[in-house]
Amino acid sequence: MVLNPQGELFQEALTRIGFSHLSAQEFIENGIDNLARLRRLIKQIHRDNQGQGLFIPFLAQQHIKAIRFWTTKMYIMGRTYHLDDVNQQLAEVWLGIMNAKEEASKAPTDLIKTPEPFKKDTKWRPWKESFTTYLHSKHGQAGIPLTYIIHEYDAPLPNVPYPTIHNEMVDCAILQGPEYNINNGIVFDLLQSLTLQGPAWAWISAYEQVRDGRSAWKALISFYEGDSMKTRTKQE
Fold first, then answer.
1. Tens of pLDDT, residues 36-81
2. How far is CA 203 from the centre of its chain?
């Protein structure tokens, strides 16, 4: 099989993390010949190699999962990622991060209950905190904490250190793409279920058809924390 330049670079990257040339070529023959395709799809390879089977060492399997995890996180946070970056050291670092995240996901989440429906304007502040805390405990597509849908800024703040991957993803996850569209709709559905019978529904009902959770949240912030609300509160 004659590889194109991109395929050759991808094969070299796989061998750096423990794959044989034969097993690396098997990935490429199955259509996985660059990091973007690796991020979107991994197939188990069952093709028989001249009756001998195809052996991929366990550690190499763990490394390829870690590199896929890395590419997904870089994509979600709007950062570039290159084949030249792929090596055993990178795989080991992200294998540790991936395993830590899997362990954290086993922690019980039922300790944080769904917020009560929002029924009184005067209860906005505590309800907002309850809703935000709940979204921190829920993960949507690509494993992103759903809080990122309602974070304040449309673009991450520059040069901000983050104590955990969780905090970084909340602030830096991109607000576009298929993952965002799904998560945005999930947040809107939750908002609708909690505001439908109360005063806040009037401010977000316009976003029902497109299920735009972020715009709905911004509308609530504008009404309950904007200048007009401050004026009304001062007058009262």
1. 888 876 555 544 445 455 677 889 989 999 999 999 999 999 999 9
2. 28
State whether the Cα torsion 28-31-36-42 is positive or negative.
negative
The whole-model pTM stands at 0.82
At 156, the amino acid letter reads P
Using DSSP's 3-state secondary structure scheme, residue 194 falls into helix
Give the three-class secondary structure for 203: helix
H or E element: which one contains 202? helix 201-204
3-state secondary structure of 91: helix
For residue 147 the two structure tokens come to 């809080």
* Residue/partner pairs of 94-97 with CB below 8 Å, 24 or more apart: 94/66, 94/67, 94/69, 94/70, 95/62, 95/63, 95/65, 95/66, 97/66, 97/69, 97/165
Q: Which structure tokens are listed for 33? A: 């010949």
Domain ranges of the chain: 5-105, 121-235
pLDDT tens per residue across span 154-181: 988 888 888 888 899 999 999 999 999 9
What whole-number distance in Å separates Cα of residue 28 and Cα of residue 230? 60
Please, are residues 181 and 174 in contact by the beta-carbon 8 Å criterion? Answer: no
Tokens of 126: 């505590």
